[in-house]
Design brief:
alpha/beta, Rossmann fold, five-stranded parallel sheet, globular
Length: about 110
């Protein structure tokens, strides 16, 4: 299965980050193709060690509207190229990024959870 995790970062500060990292690592260990899209952080080496592909996409950290558009476009490109079966999106996304995910998910018949 192709699984895409979308979360703002992977720093040591939030329980939802810990859960998303644990899920991604466990899924990769079971043989799934897993992508973790975020701004990066402390858990990057752990994700790498478990074979989780990391993609840097900043979601909600930028104050420049052009950066938001660029990040939304990067997210759509990722969905088009990776073609995930499941998209796991954590809270904290700007609405336009999540809407971009929904459009890409619909086009590829992905499940957004």
């Amino acid at each position: 299965m192709r699984i895409l995790h979308l979360i703002k970062h992977c720093m040591h500060c939030n329980g939802n980050v810990n859960v998303a990292v644990d899920l991604a690592c466990g899924q990769a260990r079971k043989g799934h193709q897993v992508v973790y899209a975020s701004a990066g952080g402390h858990y990057d080496t752990l994700l790498d060690a478990h074979g989780v592909r990391r993609v840097e996409i900043r979601q909600g950290q930028e104050s420049n509207p052009l950066a938001l558009v660029g990040n939304s476009a990067a997210l759509i490109r990722l969905c088009w190229t990776f073609k995930p079966d499941v998209i796991h999106a954590q809270r904290g996304f700007r609405l336009s990024c999540l809407e971009a995910d929904r459009r890409a998910a619909r086009d590829h018949r992905s499940q957004l959870v």
